[in-house]
Amino acid sequence: MSSLPKCPQCSSEFTYEDGENYVCPECAHEWPKQAAASTDEGRVIRDSNGNVLQDGDTVTVIKDLKIKGSSSVVKVGTKVKNIRLVDGDHDIDCKIDGIGAMSLKSEFVKKV
């Protein structure tokens, strides 16, 4: 797995370094290395109570959540251990016992 950032324009994973810049071979977008470092530091994800979440935290679901494409439901009070924060609308990736891998929105969880 590459440690280089994805392209901010087209989200391509095939970026490469060229001097002081990163370059995307798919859309030809170039951006400085300093800009890529500063975007990761500014991301703050908070739970429903306003607590800052970090990778590896344990959270509790605060609302019954229907699982899209299934008749299953994630019940209120379900503990989710070892979360991973990601970019996007559903900003938490996790594994829930009995259900499997899922993406959750941070507004439906609280930090334990």
The CATH topology of the largest domain comes to SH3 type barrels
**CATH architecture level-2 label of the largest domain:** Roll
Strand order of the largest sheet: 1-2-3
What is the succession of H and E elements? Answer: EEEHEEEEEEEE
The total of beta strands comes to: 11
CATH C-level name of the largest domain:
Mainly Beta
Strand content: 25-35%
User: Using only CA atoms, what is the Rg?
Assistant: 17 Å
| Count of alpha/pi helices | 1
| Domain module count | 2
* Low-confidence regions: none
Distance between the termini: 31 Å
**Overall average residue pLDDT:** 87
Helicity range: under 10%
* CA-based shape: elongated
Name of the CATH homologous superfamily of the largest domain: SH3 Domains
* Major sheet details: 3 strands, antiparallel
Q: How is the topology of this model organized?
A:
Elements: E1 16-18, E2 21-23, E3 30-32, H1 33-41, E4 59-61, E5 65-66, E6 73-74, E7 79-80, E8 84-85, E9 92-96, E10 100-104, E11 109-111
Give an overview in words.
- The chain has 2 domains: 1-38, N-terminal domain of TfIIb, CATH 2.20.25; 58-111, SH3 Domains (SH3 type barrels).
- Strand 2 and strand 3 form a beta hairpin.
- The protein is built from 1 helix and 11 strands, in the order E-E-E-H-E-E-E-E-E-E-E-E.
- The model has no long low-confidence stretch (mean pLDDT 87).
- The strands form 4 sheets. A 3-stranded antiparallel beta sheet has the order 1-2-3.
- The longest helix has 9 residues, at 33-41.
- The two termini are 31 Å apart.
- It has 112 residues and is mostly beta strands.
